[in-house]
Specification:
single chain; 4-stranded antiparallel β-sheet
């Protein structure tokens, strides 16, 4: 399950984020998004949990909790569909 993590502190690193989620199950990947020009953190990231059950537990357990002084916004990541992708036109 892919999870979107918002309102990350600029001081939060991948290992700290991984540790927060590992309390709920096995973490497959952790990505903290950065500005491609400055390299500064953009305040959000993604965590992939090994199962949906672990992901749901992590969302329930971490949404609204504080990490590095910021209140996390944690929810299931959804794919963005842009342009004609996903349309039923053949």
């Amino acid at each position: 399950m892919n999870i979107h993590v918002g309102n990350l502190s600029g001081d939060t690193n991948k290992e700290e984020l991984r540790q927060a989620f590992e309390g709920f199950g096995q973490v497959a990947t952790v990505i903290i998004m950065k500005n491609k020009f400055s390299g500064e953190p953009r305040g959000f990231g993604f965590v992939k949990m090994s199962s949906k059950e672990e992901g749901v537990a992590a969302i329930t357990g971490l949404n609204g909790r504080k990490l590095q002084g910021n209140t996390l916004k944690v929810d299931e990541a959804h794919l963005r569909i842009t342009g004609a992708a996903g349309s039923d036109n053949h």
